[in-house]
C-alpha cells in the first residue's frame, strides 16, 4: 500500500512537470500578453516645439501636439517615422495643448501624411491678437471642416477614451482641477517660498494638461502652462500628487516650472522638449534638476543658453551641438513601475527599477 502511494506521487510529479514544460513552451512561442507589454512614449525632436507620441500595449495611440509648420514637412515626417517605428498605420487621438504655432502649427501637414481619428483641444483660440497663433487656429479650423476627422473639446475632469491608460485632464482653457486626485491633498510647503507672478494672458495659460496613469506609473504633461497657473494648481495643497515622469513644461523656459510645482509633483524622471536655442533656461533647469526626488533630467537638445553648467551629461541628451540629427528619446513604462529611457543618438538605454 505504501509502495502504491509512492508510485502515485511519482506519477503525479511527472504529469505536473510535463504540464509545466508545455506551458513554458507555449509562453515562449506566443506573443507577449498585453498586460506584460510596456506603454511606449516617443519624444519626437521638433526643434523646440512638442510632439509626444504615446502607444499603449493594446496598440492605441495618443499624440500630444504636432510641432511646427513649414520646414518642408520636417516635423510631420519625424512624427510619422515614430509612428512607423511603433507599427502604427494611424494615430487614434491628437491632443493640441494650445494653439501656439510650435504645438498646433504642424497639424495640417501631419494629417496629410497619416490618418488621425480624433483631434482634442480646449476650445476657441484665446489669443486672437497674435498673428502666428491666429493663423495656426485658422488652419486648424480649415482642417476640421475639410477633412473627415472628429473633434472633441476637453474639459477639466474628462477621462480620455484610451484603452489601458487612464488619461485625465487637469487643466483646460484656463480652468484647473479643484478636487485633489487620489493620493494628493496635503499642504505644499513650497508655496510660501515661491514668488507670485502676473497672470499670463496668452494661449499658454489655456493649455490642456493631462496626467496619465499606467499601472503604478504616473506621467504629467501640462503643455506650456505658466507659473501663475501652476501655483493655482498646487497651492496651498498638492492637488496632483507625486508623479514618476514629468514632461517639463514650456520646453524648460523660465515662464513655467515653479518650485511649488516641482515640490508638489516630485518626479523621478524629467524629460525636456527643448531646442538648441529654445527652452532650457538656466533658472528653470535648476528648479527641475533640484526637485526633491529627481534621479535624471533628459533633454532633446543641448541648450545653448544653458551652457556647460545647465545641461545634463551628454548621454542624457538626444541632440548635441552640430548638424541637425533629429534624434529622439523613447520612454518605455511597465505597469509594475519599471522604466527605461532609450536615446536614439547613442543607441543605448538606461533602466530604472520600480520604487512602489
Structure in words:
The chain has helices spanning 2-29, 74-85, 101-104, 107-111, 131-146, 227-234, 259-265, 282-289; strands at residues 39-43, 52-55, 61-64, 91-95, 116-121, 150-153, 159-160, 166-172, 175-176, 209-214, 217-221, 245-247, 269-272, 296-301, 317-319, 329-333, 339-343, 348-352. The strands form 2 sheets. The protein has a 9-stranded mixed β-sheet with strand order 6-5-4-3-2-1-16-17-18, with helices on one face. Strands 7, 8, 9, 10, 11, 12, 13, 14 and 15 form a 9-stranded mixed β-sheet that branches. Residues 1-33 have low confidence and may be disordered. With 356 residues, the chain is an alpha/beta fold. It has 2 domains: 1-30; 40-352, Ribonuclease Z/Hydroxyacylglutathione hydrolase-like (Metallo-beta-lactamase, Chain A, 4-Layer Sandwich), CATH 3.60.15.10.
Amino acid at each position: 500500500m505504501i509502495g502504491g502511494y509512492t508510485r502515485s506521487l511519482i506519477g503525479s510529479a511527472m504529469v505536473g512537470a510535463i504540464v509545466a514544460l508545455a506551458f513554458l513552451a507555449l509562453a515562449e512561442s506566443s506573443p507577449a500578453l498585453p498586460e506584460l507589454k510596456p506603454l511606449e512614449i516617443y519624444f519626437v525632436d521638433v526643434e523646440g516645439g512638442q510632439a509626444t507620441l504615446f502607444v499603449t500595449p493594446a496598440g492605441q495611440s495618443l499624440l500630444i501636439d504636432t510641432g511646427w509648420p513649414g520646414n518642408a514637412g520636417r516635423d510631420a515626417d519625424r512624427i510619422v517615422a515614430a509612428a512607423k517605428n511603433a507599427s502604427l498605420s494611424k494615430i487614434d487621438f491628437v491632443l493640441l495643448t494650445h494653439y501656439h504655432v510650435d504645438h498646433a502649427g504642424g497639424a495640417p501637414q501631419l494629417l496629410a501624411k497619416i490618418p488621425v481619428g480624433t483631434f482634442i483641444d480646449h476650445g476657441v483660440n484665446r489669443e486672437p491678437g497674435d498673428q502666428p497663433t491666429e493663423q495656426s487656429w485658422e488652419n486648424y479650423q480649415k482642417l476640421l471642416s475639410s477633412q473627415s476627422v472628429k473633434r472633441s473639446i476637453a474639459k477639466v475632469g474628462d477621462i480620455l477614451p484610451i484603452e489601458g491608460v487612464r488619461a485625465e485632464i487637469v487643466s483646460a482653457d484656463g480652468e484647473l482641477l479643484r478636487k485633489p486626485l487620489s493620493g494628493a491633498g496635503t499642504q505644499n510647503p513650497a508655496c510660501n517660498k515661491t514668488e507670485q507672478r502676473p497672470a499670463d494672458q496668452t494661449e499658454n495659460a489655456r493649455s490642456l494638461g493631462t496626467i496619465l496613469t499606467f499601472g503604478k506609473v504616473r506621467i504629467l504633461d501640462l503643455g506650456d502652462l505658466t507659473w501663475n497657473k501652476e501655483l493655482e494648481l498646487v497651492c496651498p495643497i498638492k492637488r496632483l500628487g507625486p508623479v514618476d515622469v514629468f514632461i517639463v513644461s514650456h520646453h524648460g523656459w523660465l515662464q513655467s516650472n515653479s518650485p511649488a510645482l516641482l515640490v508638489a509633483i516630485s518626479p523621478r524622471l524629467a524629460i525636456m522638449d527643448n531646442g538648441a536655442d529654445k527652452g532650457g533656461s538656466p533658472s528653470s533647469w535648476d528648479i527641475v534638476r533640484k526637485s526633491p526626488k529627481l534621479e535624471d533630467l533628459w533633454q532633446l537638445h543641448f541648450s545653448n543658453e544653458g551652457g556647460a553648467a545647465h545641461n545634463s551629461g551628454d548621454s542624457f541628451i538626444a541632440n548635441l551641438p552640430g548638424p541637425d540629427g533629429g534624434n529622439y528619446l523613447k520612454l518605455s513604462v511597465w505597469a509594475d513601475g519599471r522604466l527605461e529611457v532609450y536615446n536614439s543618438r547613442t543607441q543605448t538605454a538606461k533602466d530604472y527599477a520600480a520604487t512602489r
